[in-house]
Records
---
Amino acid sequence: MFSGNRRRMAARLAGSAMVLFLLWTSFLIPAPVWADGPPIDPTAEVEVTADALNIREAPTTNARIVGVLYRGQRVTVDDLTPSGQTIEGVSTWYHVAGRGWISGAYTRVVRGWPVVEVTADVLNVRSGPGTGYAILGQLRWGERVEVVHLVRGSPYNWYLIVYRGNTAYIAAEYTRPASVWPLPTAYRTITSPWGMRIDPIDGQWKFHDGIDIAAPSGTPVFAFRAGTVTYAGWNGGYGLYVRIDHGDGVTSFYGHLSRVDVQVGQRVSLGQTIGLSGNTGRSTGPHLHFGTWVNGRSVDPLTLVRRP
Ligand SMILES: [Zn+2]
């Protein structure tokens, strides 16, 4: 089966990309945040949308049936057929971990693949990773789409996406990782900005490594992008605290929480609730302290997420 080879190739690509990335970031130019695209995790959870869906030994309708899934059942997908392996009009087959293949046309993605948003006015959706391939449709500015794989190319890198139930490609350069405000949009007042300020507790001129957003204790706090939790629990003056690594040099953290709902190592999706806001640690009142880092440096979160 090609899936093992493809995974090894993906690992090799990721390795060389990392070396290039480290070389590049060691020079003077600050890296644009989304230059290398979002992290590509080739697993996702999908939900069956057909009444019954056969699991087959191979990605073709002629292959032996080895099981059945029913409407609403959720399974983890760890591979998919590349576009072009078209079999009887069904372009994409998903490999269900440890079981076999299902037709992707009868499923919807629930969770797991990174989400990007379009930064061009109009972005062509193509049948292959190049401008010579057929245009299947168009995405507009701000539209969001889930990315399954990154295909490196010249002059563009391409994202493999699932578009209207089939695989398709978009130029990665005209997208950026999708982000959400870390609180319900009603809570948009910034009571203290990022940067140097007079500390509200000791009156000293100090660096404030995030933004304070007013919210009553108990307000759900959302992961501003998809990523992996690297800290969850008490962290000194930050009180109850969660940190998320977004995989491309961007890290976010959330302080003064009243409750933490995630664990270290857990993968979180865009907008997933990670805990509740509060007033723990060194805090003068209920609020969320939201901070972001890019390649190890504190940056103003408002450069990475739009305030509602
Ligand atoms: Zn703060």
---
Amino acid sequence: MSRRNCVNEWSGSIQSPNYPSSYDPNANCSWTIQIPLDKYLANVNITDFHLETNYDFLFRYDCSSSDSSLIASLTGQQSGRIFSSSSNSMHLVFSSDSDSNWQGFSLNFTSVYSPLLDEPTTPSCGNNSACNGGKYIATLSGSGAYVSSSGYPSYYDNNLSCTWLVYSESQVKTNNLHVVLAANGDYLMFFDGPSQDFMILKIYTRYYDSASTFYSTGNYMFVQIVTGDSRSDNGFYFYACTYVNSTSLTAYSGSNYFTSPN
Ligand SMILES: [Ca+2]
């Protein structure tokens, strides 16, 4: 069977054919999620996902057709995963082979406003930083990205609100976080998603220095430093890199198990 679907909604759900009964063999179905306005992301929660491992797949593309770049190939059991699009559209393709049909999948998606979907701006006040309404977007590849307050370890400015959006094709992981903030109401926050609308991962208000790491649940981590009108200190730095949970994600290898439906 072959089927194409367009979902032009603010929120909704998508199920594999026949769900929760088993899907058909040789299925080839696609969905385009299009959030009605720019600057919104589709945030997808996989509520149930059981596909035959390495034979049946849900392919995730970053834009509105399978001509776009393939982000991930999901197979096996993936329930509980969360991921986001990097724009207001996302394309999904479900493909099954000729036998062993499992239960399939059910996904919910919602819209999330992300003002940082504007084009990245040139950092206005130092390396990897953007302040007072600006933004810095780091897309992780290779060895990752160094993120710091402006001019670290030189003292940061007063009255800052600086933000960083870190994107990875898998999850975002922090390394070697070092924080030195003045005791003046200054704070550093990490959010588990593409904006401040998401759950707070960490808040730091003074000193912190550790080799311990933490992760985003999905593809984005949003970072914000806010400083008051007096006193200052060194600021912060960390190294952001891509984290792949190898027990639940089959990375796309560009090999021969996928045929485009188009
Ligand atoms: Ca199968």
